[in-house]
């Protein structure tokens, strides 16, 4: 469930001391619905780019709220569901 790792390097925990840390540190972000592997962000690499996805129904780019998101909106999700129903073969015989 770890979605992001940010390397921060060595830290000085108390200002004004002459001693510096001997260990490297990192920040970790955990998200309950994250299913892909974590993204590593190197120290000083700049701002984190926004994640983007392509809607499977309308093919427009969007920013997903979950890693498993497939559609940009509820309307596209409903439209995809209705198009799947249109091609489904009926299992009951016609009278």
**Order of secondary-structure elements:** EEEEEH
Q: Main β-sheet: number of strands, strand sense, barrel status?
A: 3 strands, mixed
Number of strands: 5
Bin the helical content. 10-25%
Distance between the termini: 52 Å
Strand line-up of the largest beta sheet: 2-1-3
**Count of domain modules:** 2
- pLDDT < 50 stretches: none
Q: What would you say this structure looks like, in words?
A:
By secondary structure, the protein is α+β, with helices and mostly antiparallel strands. It folds into two domains: 1-43, no CATH class; 50-88, no CATH class. Helix content is 15%, strand content 24%. The chain has one helix and five strands; from the N terminus they run E-E-E-E-E-H. The strands form two sheets. It has a three-stranded mixed β-sheet, with no helix packed on it. It has a two-stranded antiparallel ribbon with strand order 4-5. The N and C termini lie far apart (52 Å). The model has no long low-confidence stretch (mean pLDDT 80).
List the helices and strands and how they pair.
Layout: E1 2-10, E2 24-30, E3 39-41, E4 53-54, E5 61-62, H1 74-87
Parallel strand pairs: 1-3
Antiparallel strand pairs: 1-2, 4-5
